[in-house]
Amino acid sequence: MEKLPRGLEKFEELIGYKYNDISLLETALTHSSYANEMKPKGVSVKFNERLEFLGDSVLSIIVSDYLFRHYPELPEGDLTRIRASAVCEKTLGKLALELELGKYMRLGVGEEKSNGRERVSILADAFEALLASIYIDSGSRDAVEKFLMPRVKPEIKQFVENGQNRDYKTLLQQIVQQERGERLEYVLIGESGPDHDKCFTVEAHLNSNVIGHGKGRSKREAEQMAAKEALVLFGDK
């Protein structure tokens, strides 16, 4: 049997899937920067953006189906927030890093020099392309689920157990609205850190009285944390 290019037989072992058409895996692991650098040399190389497009949808339907079946008590809003966390760039980048996916990618010289093999955006896109390549090669969702869900389930479980699926701002607003004339607002009182790693501090005010504090990497997250603290005053644990 012909040896697979660039040690991809090792990657097949890592993901637990044997390809019928190894070119699908090569394409999934090829960044557009590599393909663009090959053009002047007269070499046409497929890259992973089309696979990424399909993989995004495959990922969404598999995770949605899992959440629908395993969390029957949760409303649509909570399911949406959990799915958003499970399929977000940060999570997919983390899963790709655990697989050392970047080590097997074909990148252009510029991306290589700028640490592209560890860049979350590149890895997350390649992870989605990988899902699509398995889906096309196997002809069904089963192989994709077998690879994906053992990796995603812990992320979903942690998200739910930490209560991050709850929309604290909406819950607090619903309580406050029970009394007419009450005014709830969120006030940004501080921010710190460099642009790529900001920390925001927000206070929840009810009729100008501070009822909660919150910190987060975005104003939205900080507001949610302030609302979460405020809910304790109303007996919501």
Describe the protein in words.
This protein has 237 residues and is mostly helical. The protein is built from eleven helices and three strands; from the N terminus they run ααααααααααβββα. The protein has helices at residues 8-15, 22-28, 32-38, 49-70, 76-86, 89-98, 109-113, 120-138, 142-161, 168-176, 219-233; strands spanning 184-192, 199-206, 209-216. It has a three-stranded antiparallel beta sheet with strand order 1-2-3, with helices on one face. The longest helix has 22 residues, at 49-70. The chain starts with 7 loop residues before the first helix and ends with a helix.
Compact description:
By secondary structure, the protein is mainly α. The chain has helices at residues 8-15, 22-28, 32-38, 49-70, 76-86, 89-98, 109-113, 120-138, 142-161, 168-176, 219-233; strands spanning 184-192, 199-206, 209-216. The radius of gyration is 22 Å and the shape is elongated.
Features:
mainly alpha; 11 helices; 237 residues; 3-stranded antiparallel sheet
